[in-house]
Amino acid sequence: MTNETLPKQNASVIIPVYNGADTIILLTDRLLKELPKLFSEYEIILVDDCSDDDSWNVLKSLQSAHPEIIRTMHLARNYGQHNATLCGIRAARYEICITMDDDLQHPPEQLPLLLEEFNKGFDVVYAVPKKMPHSWWRNLGSRMTKIVLGKIMGMRIREMGAFRMFRTDLRDAFASYSSPEVYVDPLLTWGTKKFSHVYVEEDKREIGKSNYSLARLVKASLLIMTGYSTVPLRIASLIGFIFMLFGLGILIYVLVVTLTQGSTPGFPFLASIISIFAGVQLFTLGIIGEYLARVYERSSERPTYVVRETADNFAESRE
Question: What is the pTM of this model?
């Protein structure tokens, strides 16, 4: 495809990098072959999330080799994948944003499928793997997280992931967002409801290992539920109301038994009832506590990220 026949579109590819020194060169080479086929102008934004390996030096070498295309940022500490992704989104210069992982599981060769669906008029298009490539427990945890997120976002279970394409101007909807806890997908719902997805072949990870553990997946689920939705609070209220009715029913039962049969001993019954209600109270207090924790985090004015260093003249440091 020649430059004359290229579509009048341009894109910023954003890749959060954490301990990706062994994979990012291969991924960048594949992107540099694929992007000219799809876009008239493009850039690759590599955000090093304070890696423990030699990733930053590798990124600087890549930027030196392709100074007009590759932009790099080095965060002051490890903030997390979504924080690093948000950093890249805010630095993007072109009309389309593409986000993907650095572990070679998201094939750049699948980008034409996303672009074709995007050009149908959708604002966000997710690349959904036809077959989950992770271990069974990781797949289960990921699926549960997507169920929760899908309910909150009004989307079906498999319609989301880190490999996505969306309009860059959606970032205007969360331009003032500054919480240290970030999850990109709910933020995108603040600017649009026009979501879609395509099924792609996702590669298995051949180099390194995943940085996500079961504990991190659980933490992500809690963040999604309490950081971007009031659904858990409503559930807690509903549970409280149901058990209030249950308690009222127990009271009526005790009164009826007392009036018809006289007072009957029932310590086990009483202890069970107290345990049930105490458990419900602790559960609802725990949910309220999670919300208070989110309020504290957002009011503490901790930055979403801090850029320590860049290897080009374009990137901005934003908090």
Answer: 0.73
